[in-house]
Backbone:
C-alpha cells in the first residue's frame, strides 16, 4: 500500500465523521496549546532574568565579605555586614592578569531629600571604573571622575528611579542640589534604565565617589563589595582562583576557608535559571496531563472506529490486505488526528502566549525547538495511543470480521 | 487447477471438537462453473473459506495452480488472495463512502498496481460486469442491491483472478435482480472463460452452474453435471 493511498483512505475515514474527528482533535489541540503557552511563559521568564543579570555587567566576579553557606542562597546574602574587605584589597586585585576593571564599592541606605520629596534608597560609593565594570550607561550629565574621588567631592549620580522619585517626570535633575543624610550633594548625572534583576533594582540607586562615602557619609575604610570585570569569559575561573589566593594571603586566612566569598554571575544565573527551569517543568507537566487525556481520547475514538468498521476490515483482508496494510491504515488515522491537533495547538498556544505577554505583561518566548517538540510529541501520542487499536484491527480474523453484525 | 486432497477441518471450542469437513477431495478445472450446495451447517462455508484461502485445513492438501497453499501463514495467504481469488459476498461489502470506481480499484491498491493502470483495469472490469457507465462515479451506498452486487463482481474481476468465489451472491436480492447477477456470472464464464465457484443453499441458484457439488455433514454426497441447466438468454433478458 502506497503512502498516497494511505493518505486518501485516512482522509475519507476522518471526513466521514467530522464531528467525532473534530472533538477528538480538540483534546490534542488543548493539550499541545497549553504546553506551548506554559513553556513559552517559563522560557520568557528565564530569558528576562538572564538578560537582566547579564545587563549588570558582563564577565563579572563579585567579592563579598563573609562566607556564604552552600545552599543558603547567594542572592540575598547579607552584603556589607562584614568589614574585612578594604580599599587596599581592591588595589592588590588589579595585578591579576586578565582583569579588565576593578570596582570597589561601599553600599548603604540613606534618606535622600529634594525640596520636600524624599526617598530611602541604596547609596553606593564607587570609583569611575564602576561605569565600565557594571555596564552603566549615562542618560544625562557626567559620571564620577578621578578628580571627584581625589577631592572627596559632594557630587551624586542618580539612578532613573531615584531621579523620578525626587524630581518627577520631565524635570532635569542635573545641577540641582539634593540632601543625602542631611548633607548637600550636587547632582552631576543620571544613569540609563537597566530594569530590575530579581531582588536588586539597579535603577533605584544613587552613586557618590567612594572616598566621599567612606569619609563623609558612612565612615570606615571597609568595602561592601569588589566587582572584578574579566576580559574574557573563559578566564573567569582562573581569575576567580587567583583572586581567592591573593585575598586569602592578604587577609592571612586559609584559602579553603576564607573570610570572603567570590561569586560569579554564572553562579547567580545558575541559581535563578534553576528556579525558572523548575517552574517551566512544573507548568509543562500540568499541561502535559491534558495532552495525555487527549491521547486517551484518540485511543477511545480509534477503538470505536475499529469496532464499527470490522466488516470493512474483513473485506479488506479478504481481498488481499496484509496485517501491515491494516495496521498502517489505522495508525495513519490516529497520527493524522494528533498531527492536525498538534498544528492547530501550536497556533493556539502561540496566540495564547502573545495574549499573555500583551495583556498580563509577562514576557513569553516561543522557540523553534518547542514547536518541533510539540509536533514530535503529538505524532508520538498518535503512534502510542493508535498502536493498540491498529493492532487490534490488524489481528482480526477475516472470516469472523466478515460475519460481524 | 484447484485440487483438494482429503481435506479435513476441525474446530475446537474448549473440550468440544466439531468436525466441519471430513476427508473432502475434488478437482475443479480451469474454466468450470461449479456450484457448491448444501444446507446451513453442512460445511460449505468452511469449504469456501479454505478454497478462498481465508482459512487453512486441519489436514489434507489444497493445491491452487499446482501450489500447495494449505500450510501458509496469514500474510502469505493474503498474497495468494490478492493475486488469485476474487470474492463476491452476499452482503456486497462495498465501502460506503467511496465511489464505484474506487471500490473496484481497492484490490489493486493492495496488489501494488500503479494509479493509471488501476483506473483502466477497473473500467474494464466494470464493463465486464455490465455495470452502466453513468454510475461509475456514484457513491456505492446510493445504488440498488443488484447494482451493488455488480460492483462487487467487477471488484472480484479486477485483479484477473484464477478463481471467482461467490458466497450466496443472490441471497440479498429478489428473483429478478438475482437472475441478472447469475446471468452476469454465466456470461463471464461463457465469454471470458472464467472459473467460478458459487456457494449456495438454493437448488434453483445452483442450477445455473454446469456442475454441482452437494455437501452434507462435512462430506460430499453428490458431484456431477447439472441435468436441466438454466441458461439465461442474454438477449431475452435485455428485451424484458
Residues:
Amino acid at each position: 500500500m502506497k503512502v498516497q493511498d494511505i493518505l486518501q483512505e485516512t482522509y475519507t475515514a476522518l471526513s466521514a465523521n467530522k464531528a467525532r474527528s473534530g472533538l477528538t482533535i480538540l483534546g490534542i489541540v488543548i493539550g499541545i496549546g497549553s504546553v506551548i503557552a506554559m513553556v513559552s511563559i517559563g522560557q520568557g521568564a528565564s530569558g528576562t532574568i538572564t538578560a537582566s543579570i547579564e545587563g549588570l555587567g558582563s564577565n563579572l566576579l563579585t567579592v563579598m565579605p563573609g562566607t556564604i553557606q552552600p545552599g543558603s542562597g547567594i542572592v540575598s546574602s547579607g552584603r556589607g555586614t562584614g568589614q574585612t574587605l578594604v580599599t587596599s584589597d581592591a588595589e592588590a586585585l588589579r595585578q591579576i592578569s586578565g582583569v579588565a576593571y576593578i570596582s570597589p564599592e561601599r553600599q548603604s541606605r540613606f534618606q535622600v531629600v529634594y525640596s520636600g520629596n524624599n526617598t530611602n534608597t541604596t547609596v553606593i560609593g564607587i570609583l569611575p571604573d564602576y561605569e565600565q565594570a557594571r555596564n552603566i550607561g549615562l542618560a544625562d550629565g557626567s559620571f564620577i571622575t578621578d578628580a571627584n574621588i581625589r577631592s572627596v567631592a559632594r557630587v551624586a549620580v542618580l539612578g532613573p528611579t531615584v531621579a523620578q522619585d525626587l524630581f518627577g517626570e520631565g524635570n532635569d535633575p542635573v545641577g540641582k542640589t539634593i540632601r543625602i543624610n542631611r548633607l548637600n550633594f550636587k547632582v552631576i548625572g543620571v544613569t540609563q534604565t537597566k530594569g530590575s534583576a530579581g531582588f536588586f533594582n539597579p535603577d533605584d540607586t544613587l552613586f557618590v565617589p567612594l572616598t566621599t562615602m567612606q569619609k563623609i557619609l558612612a565612615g570606615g575604610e571597609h568595602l561592601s563589595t569588589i566587582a572584578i570585570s574579566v576580559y574574557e569569559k573563559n578566564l573567569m575561573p582562573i581569575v576567580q582562583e587567583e583572586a581567592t589566593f591573593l585575598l586569602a594571603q592578604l587577609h592571612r586566612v586559609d584559602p579553603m576557608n576564607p573570610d570572603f566569598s567570590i561569586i560569579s554571575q554564572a553562579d547567580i544565573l545558575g541559581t535563578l535559571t534553576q528556579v525558572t527551569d523548575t517552574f517551566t517543568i512544573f507548568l509543562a507537566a500540568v499541561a502535559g496531563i491534558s495532552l495525555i487525556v487527549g491521547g486517551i481520547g484518540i485511543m477511545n475514538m480509534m477503538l470505536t472506529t475499529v469496532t464499527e468498521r470490522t466488516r470493512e476490515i474483513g473485506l479488506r483482508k479478504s481481498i488481499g490486505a496484509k496485517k501491515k496494510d491494516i495496521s498502517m491504515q489505522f495508525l495513519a488515522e490516529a497520527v493524522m488526528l494528533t498531527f492536525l491537533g498538534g498544528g492547530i495547538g501550536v497556533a493556539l498556544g502561540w496566540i495564547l502566549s502573545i495574549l499573555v505577554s500583551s495583556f498580563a505583561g509577562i514576557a513569553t518566548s516561543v522557540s523553534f525547538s518547542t514547536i518541533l517538540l510539540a509536533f514530535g510529541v503529538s505524532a508520538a501520542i498518535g503512534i502510542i495511543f493508535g498502536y493498540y487499536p491498529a493492532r487490534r484491527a490488524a489481528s482480526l480474523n477475516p472470516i469472523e470480521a466478515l460475519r460481524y453484525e | 487447477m484447484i485440487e483438494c486432497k482429503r481435506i479435513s477441518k476441525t474446530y475446537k471450542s474448549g473440550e468440544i471438537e466439531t468436525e466441519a469437513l471430513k476427508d473432502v477431495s475434488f478437482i475443479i478445472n480451469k474454466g468450470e462453473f461449479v456450484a457448491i450446495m448444501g444446507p446451513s451447517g453442512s460445511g460449505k462455508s468452511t469449504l469456501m473459506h479454505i478454497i478462498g484461502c481465508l482459512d487453512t485445513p486441519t489436514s489434507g492438501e489444497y493445491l491452487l495452480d499446482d501450489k500447495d497453499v494449505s500450510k501458509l501463514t496469514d500474510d502469505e495467504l493474503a498474497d495468494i488472495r490478492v493475486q488469485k481469488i476474487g470474492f463476491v459476498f452476499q452482503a456486497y461489502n462495498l465501502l460506503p463512502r467511496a465511489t464505484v470506481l474506487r471500490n473496484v480499484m481497492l484490490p489493486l491498491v493492495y496488489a501494488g498496481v500503479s494509479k493509471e493502470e488501476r483506473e483502466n483495469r477497473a473500467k474494464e472490469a466494470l464493463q465486464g460486469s455490465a455495470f452502466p457507465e453513468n454510475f461509475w462515479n456514484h457513491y456505492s451506498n446510493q445504488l440498488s442491491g443488484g447494482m451493488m452486487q455488480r460492483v462487487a463482481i467487477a471488484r472480484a474481476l479486477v485483479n484477473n483472478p484464477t478463481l471467482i468465489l461467490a458466497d450466496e451472491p443472490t441471497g440479498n436480492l429478489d428473483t429478478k435482480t438475482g437472475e441478472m447477477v447469475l446471468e452476469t456470472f454465466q456470461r463471464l464464464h461463457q465469454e471470458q472463460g472464467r472459473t467460478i465457484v458459487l456457494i449456495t443453499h438454493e437448488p434453483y441458484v445452483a442450477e445455473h452452474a454446469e456442475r454441482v457439488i452437494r455437501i452434507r455433514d462435512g462430506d460430499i454426497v453428490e458431484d456431477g453435471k447439472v441435468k436441466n441447466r438454466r441458461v439465461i438468454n442474454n438477449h431475452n433478458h435485455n428485451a424484458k
